[in-house]
């Protein structure tokens, strides 16, 4: 929820089922997240522990990319949102050479479908054209994090960790239709003229350092550079949930950017060693392109915020709450305050 300069809210509910196979025939993974269904067969091993294969499909209806909402200066702009849905299938091959390294190739295809939303989409807004996309991705990951057994399970909103991990992803989107969209009344918005071949590079980092028996420092960093992107592929920033580059205080997502660098540092304190609860503070900051959403793709402005949080563990239950405030900037109206509350449980 965000409370200023106006009130708004989003929610999500997810159910995740993971069936691990000891025979090497792959792990079944089913995830239903609000309006997105994922079904995959993961970690197929063709006679060696150095290679893992996977196949999966994903279907998302109406709210893909949170595209029904359109924000400018952290204010909702009625009329620019629309429904977006897709069907996606992909196959992956991961090489594990050892030493905490992995290299993964993912080949995917996606069909996008778009529709006007009553009361949300202006009659004179140019929608994207339904299109097919070929989506190859190449990823390198170094993973040397230490965490508890539940850290990366879906009932835990944000994991706790120590150690270091980093990754790089190179990708391309090849579309069969690259018509410009986003114009209102025939006036081009300057942001949504996708290239036939969209290129993107993403980089991320996570690090955790214990500062004593009760205190831990966590750092997360993300960078992106894209060419020929539009609002279908741009990175979402704003909010405090796992699906965005975090900027406390801003709506989810206030910014859609392909060129950015941002980081968040958080200090986690355990009030008692007898319980697994944590309290803390997180501070985020970064540089983002075209924050005013006027098509000035080579312009950059700062955004950042701070949050107080509590992360409570009761056995299989996880309760997480955050309150955030966005730092005032030249492009942002003030004040900007938001909150996040999540409840999760491991059933099995």
How many independent structural domains? 1
Query: At the first level of CATH, what is the class?
Result: Mainly Beta
- Mean of the pLDDT scores? 95
Stretches where pLDDT falls below 50 for ≥5 residues? none
Number of helices: 0
N- and C-termini, Cα separation: 30 Å
In the CATH classification, which architecture applies? Answer: Beta Barrel
| Strand count | 20
The description of the largest β-sheet is: 16 strands, antiparallel
Task: Describe the global form.
Answer: globular
Taken as a percent bin, the fraction of beta residues is over 45%
Which fold name corresponds to the CATH topology?
Answer: Porin
The residue fraction in helices comes out at: under 10%
Task: Write the topology of this structure.
Elements: E1 2-4, E2 14-19, E3 27-33, E4 36-44, E5 51-60, E6 71-72, E7 75-76, E8 83-98, E9 101-115, E10 131-146, E11 162-175, E12 197-210, E13 215-227, E14 235-237, E15 255-257, E16 260-269, E17 278-289, E18 300-314, E19 317-326, E20 337-345
Antiparallel strand pairs: 1-20, 2-3, 3-4, 4-5, 5-8, 6-7, 8-9, 9-10, 10-11, 11-12, 12-13, 13-16, 14-15, 16-17, 17-18, 18-19, 19-20
């Amino acid at each position: 929820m965000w409370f200023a300069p106006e009130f708004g809210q989003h929610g999500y509910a997810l159910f995740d089922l993971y069936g691990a196979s000891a025979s090497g025939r792959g792990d079944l993974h089913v995830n239903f997240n609000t309006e997105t269904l994922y079904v995959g067969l993961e970690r197929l091993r063709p006679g060696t522990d150095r290679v893992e294969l996977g196949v999966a499909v994903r279907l998302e209806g109406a709210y893909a990319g949170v595209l029904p909402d359109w924000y400018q200066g952290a204010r909702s702009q009625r009329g620019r949102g629309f429904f977006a849905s897709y069907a996606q299938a992909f196959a992956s091959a991961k090489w594990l050479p050892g030493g905490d390294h992995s290299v993964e190739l993912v080949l995917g295809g996606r069909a996008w479908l778009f529709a006007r939303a009553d009361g949300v989409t202006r009659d004179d807004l140019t929608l994207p054209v339904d299109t097919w996309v070929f989506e190859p991705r190449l990823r390198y990951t170094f993973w040397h994090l230490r965490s508890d057994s539940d850290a990366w399970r879906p009932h835990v909103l944000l994991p706790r960790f120590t150690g270091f991990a980093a990754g790089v992803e190179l990708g391309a989107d090849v579309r069969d239709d690259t018509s410009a969209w986003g114009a209102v009344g025939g006036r081009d918005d300057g942001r949504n003229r996708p290239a036939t071949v969209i290129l993107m590079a993403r980089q991320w980092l996570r690090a955790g350092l214990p500062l004593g028996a009760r205190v831990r420092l966590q750092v997360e960093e993300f960078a992106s550079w894209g060419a020929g992107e539009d609002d279908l592929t741009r990175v979402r920033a704003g909010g405090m949930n796992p699906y965005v580059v975090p900027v406390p205080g801003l709506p989810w997502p206030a910014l859609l950017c392909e060129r950015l660098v941002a980081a968040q540092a958080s200090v986690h304190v355990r009030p008692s060693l007898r319980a697994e609860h944590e309290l803390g503070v997180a501070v985020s900051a970064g540089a983002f392109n075209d924050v005013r959403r006027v098509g000035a793709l080579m312009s950059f402005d700062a955004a950042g915020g701070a949050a107080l949080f509590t992360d409570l563990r009761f056995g299989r239950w996880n309760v997480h709450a955050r309150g955030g405030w966005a730092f005032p900037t030249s492009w942002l109206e003030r004040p900007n305050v938001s909150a996040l509350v999540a409840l999760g449980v491991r059933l099995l």
